[in-house]
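worker-3 :: picked Probable enoyl-CoA hydratase
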Amino acid sequence: MVLKERQDGVLVLTLNRPEKLNAITGELLDALYAALKEGEEDREVRALLLTGAGRAFSAGQDLTEFGDRKPDYEAHLRRYNRVVEALSGLEKPLVVAVNGVAAGAGMSLALWGDLRLAAVGASFTTAFVRIGLVPDSGLSFLLPRLVGLAKAQELLLLSPRLSAEEALALGLVHRVVPAEKLMEEALSLAKELAQGPTRAYALTKKLLLETYRLSLTEALALEAVLQGQAGQTQDHEEGVRAFREKRPPRFQGR
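worker-3 :: tokens ->
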């Protein structure tokens, strides 16, 4: 369900149901959650890369999983929610390479990447209203923060299909690259991050999420606390030493 490969400090995770456009099932969610926790806990992993096999990133929830029974969505979403919490709480940078369609919950998962690349020909659609549902997997939280409330309402209520270039213009992705170059560029970016100050990345990610709910005074206080923590790391010491010695830093992620 989820392929795993390690390269130079990067854990590459690939959603692997290409015959079903990587449509999401409970089994896939469990496998993805386990892989994310493995990457989080392995000290040799300093960045993660998430993509899909075949011609899609993910077409969203596999509705055939439920058969003829009426889904208990509230219970089912607990499996999604722990994956979203694992993605949002990752203390290592996450690159997402969107290789094809990202729809519904597939779009939600893609947007949790810290840096998001899309192939020419990839597409995005929220999709939920097309089957009479509300956004889930954190999309109601994340989308307005990325594109603003008015545009989020448009994307959620009308569910247009966005090209990779349109997604780039809205800030949903950071870069659009030729399909044949997608994994090369995404992996290069992930490897670059894997050589960086891992703890500073984690604290920066925490700061950005937390400040959405804080006043300026509270945000300044949190900056001071987290800067104090960053200032105690070996990577900070190395960064200062490299600055004084006029050489590139050699961060160890500690």
